[in-house]
């Protein structure tokens, strides 16, 4: 502890991590194992571990990646569940924090307001608001890691539809689902067709009077078979860790292959993806509602475990309507086609808002930095920001695959700096490096296009591009030398 000029006590750390979700807890575990001499803390706004998995509590919330590759490489997922419900994912993250003894390093209830770097002192000063007490708190560190993901936790995306104020029922956004909300026997309309909507439909159909998924455009679905019985059977004859390693490797390979094939041969992959959907739905379903007008992986592919969405539609407990909203009415929604949908509950699964670094104001030597104008270096550090890293997982594979290797790279960098007496490392981009696009790659999803100005830029060369390629990133982060001539090194400040 030390006292600031205003008398406020501030804590100093070697490394500060912002966010106690799957990225932040993973970073802390790697740091503790690979850079054990570092004193660190995790600053978390919520009052619980889990991040996204603690935020989202809507019915049926689950992982949209297989858990074998989504789990940390250093702590295998030992359950036979391939796509797990959100509560189990949340518990997995919490159990990992406890097992690796990083939970005691978390400071809860802190909204980070700003982060300011001083080149003279070689430190970041982090200003935070402890929201439950309204106290301002200050922390300093030599190295700062943002693990906030890309969601805006305060604001979701809800379009303004005509006549919304006239609707007599209840409107809910999944990001802010009411605790213990009972929708038994109610007529439900879910607006959207992404991962959240297709999770809500079968979950709510079990108790609701009716569930209608209202979509503007269809989405590509991958009907993932239920492998739990197979994994359990293998467990009777093989060691659990062998099974984990084999299934994990298989899923990583399949993820990458599916994405590459979709980008290289989109027409062929379109047929590959649509054929099993048609088979699962049966002959009586109009495939117009399940045939997108874009190429596979122009938007995220949605995975359906065991075909639960298709079963709900086939059984008549749920339905899909492809249309646009003309206006809300007292009793539901009027569509542009002239049809109407009666509803007691409208769920606006219309998407998220993006926010880089959790909206933290960043300054370097008193100058505010617009991070959306910057490039990322090795998709882990940020151009012109000394001693700062960010964890940004994959959008076309399991998030944690990237989080794991990014954390290992940060530890490599910290250990290298210690060995050479280096006080700060700053990526400096060459002239003319800015290219086309942003760090979300080529996704045309609505949430990317809406907030595209929020996102950091893409560079022209591999060091300055976010590739979303596990093969490229593994080499770049784990094998390539730390000192590659791009980072600007400044010696450590010597104190008497």
- What would you report as the Rg, rounded to the nearest angstrom? 24 Å
Mean pLDDT across every amino acid position: 90
Number of strands: 28
The first-level CATH class of the largest domain is given as Alpha Beta
Which residues sit in consecutive blocks of at least 5 with pLDDT less than 50? Answer: 3-7
Helix content: 25-40%
Number of domains: 2
Largest sheet: 10 strands, mixed
Label the CATH architecture of the largest domain. 3-Layer(bba) Sandwich
Describe the structure.
- With 496 residues, this protein is of the alpha/beta class.
- The chain has two domains: 2-153 and 353-491, FAD/NAD(P)-binding domain; 158-350, FAD/NAD(P)-binding domain (3-Layer(bba) Sandwich).
- It is built from twelve helices and 28 strands.
- Helix 7 crosses helix 8.
- The radius of gyration is 24 Å and the shape is globular.
